[in-house]
Amino acid sequence: MSKFTAACVQLRSSEDIVENIASASKLIREAAKAGAQFIATPENTSLMAADGGAKLAHSTSEDKDTALAAFRALATELKIHLLVGSLAIKVSETKTANRTFLIAPDGKVTARYSKIHLFDVDLPSGETYRESNTVAGGDEAVIADTPWGKLGLSICYDIRFPQLYRALANAGAFAFTAPSAFTVTTGKAHWHVLLRARAIENGAFMIAPAQGGAHANTRSTYGHSLIVGPWGEILAEGGTDPGIFLAEIDPQLSRNARAELPSLKHDREFSLNSGH
Q: pLDDT (tens digit, 9 = 90+) per residue, 72-86?
């Protein structure tokens, strides 16, 4: 469990899949050149559609997905561990899966995770999101083996559900990934707080690459890609523009935090008294 350099790639993806693959690949190359061994891209890496219907129309099955093939080839070429934050993978005639892929330096997909918690909300700003209309939610938490230890996978809205990260931490994860495309409204209010809380609660690193800025389809995302340490300290942070943000990750610091504040060992079963 030696130290390594991780990088968040921040994007401003559009509905042009070819353009998005090129933009992401350029920044992944920059991160690898800067010494990153583990590189993560945000949610909706290859396609930021105006709505779920447009996303479904542009999606294919996993074996035909051009973005996944391109990123597998790139990971092989650069000899990196590449986490593709999420791709829209068609799983039925009416729905896609919002799916993360962890790719090893030999180009093999070593882990897949389909987003469990779907974003269905009406915001005070007037923005409305119904992810469940066209996305099939996952039903399985995923922990992946890496050369540095176990990695817990999640996507965006998942960070509001601490029980997921508790389960991943109890399964041995020293770090979590949370590729995201937060809205500006929720990002300003909650992004930093939630990511730091999940890190602190579990004594784990949080690697959270994000979409940022005004997208061509009128959507806007918060940006501020973050790498957070297990004591809640911010190790790297982006703004709203595309770019790369790197930090050194020392898995020993996760073990140290869990020794100093052993809350993982203090979970207890309890009953709920309704007051009657």
A: 999 999 999 999 999
Q: What is the DSSP letter of 121?
A: E
11-34 pLDDT, tens digit each: 999 999 999 999 999 999 999 999
Query: Which domain, by its residues, includes 191?
Result: 4-263
**Is 43 noted as a catalytic residue in this protein?**
yes
Active site (annotated) includes residue 156? yes
| Given 43, 55, 95, 131, the catalytic residue | 43
> What contacts 63, CB < 8 A, 6 or more positions away?
none
CATH number, domain of 125, equals 3.60.110.10
Q: Residue 1: pLDDT band by 50, 70, 90 thresholds?
A: low
Which member of 55, 95, 131, 156 is catalytic?
156
Which residue among 8, 90, 115, 131 is the active-site one? 115
Number of domains the chain is built from? 1
In a domain, 274, yes or no: no
**122 in helix, strand or coil?**
strand
The answer to whether 50 touches 15, Cβ cutoff 8 Å, is yes
3-state secondary structure of 22: helix
